From TrEMBL:
<dbReference type="InterPro" id="IPR012504">
    <property type="entry name" value="Spore_YabP"/>
</dbReference>
<protein>
    <submittedName>
        <fullName>YabP family protein</fullName>
    </submittedName>
</protein>
<dbReference type="InterPro" id="IPR022476">
    <property type="entry name" value="Spore_YabP/YqfC"/>
</dbReference>
<dbReference type="InterPro" id="IPR038705">
    <property type="entry name" value="YabP_sf"/>
</dbReference>
<dbReference type="Pfam" id="PF07873">
    <property type="entry name" value="YabP"/>
</dbReference>
<dbReference type="GO" id="GO:0030435">
    <property type="term" value="P:sporulation resulting in formation of a cellular spore"/>
</dbReference>
Length: 94
């Protein structure tokens, strides 16, 4: 297995999630948060979720709300999908 930087995930009572190893937050709303970590894309699903702490220099994140599930997604990056949000014309003219 490859050696990774610090990657720690803890959940306290499904109401508070702490994560170390965050590199980029791709998207977020109260039901879903998608972010790049040093171990791949992580997708959080829940209700009433809010990012209460984010420090990308340290790679730390705290989310509060009701957490229903989480999933690591292989072979994707939230940064690579950023161009998808642009209009078709903007992507052609680039």
């Amino acid at each position: 297995m490859e050696e990774y930087e610090k990657h720690i995930l803890s959940i306290e009572g499904r109401k508070k999630l702490k994560l170390a190893g965050v590199q980029h937050v791709g998207s977020f709303d109260e039901q879903e948060i998608t972010l790049d970590t040093n171990m791949g894309v992580l997708q959080l699903k829940g209700e009433g979720m809010h990012i209460t702490h984010l420090n990308l220099d340290e790679g730390s994140l705290v989310v509060e709300g009701y957490i229903n599930g989480l999933e690591y997604i292989e072979g994707k990056s939230t940064k690579a999908n950023k161009a998808r949000g642009k209009s078709f014309i903007n992507r052609i003219l680039k």
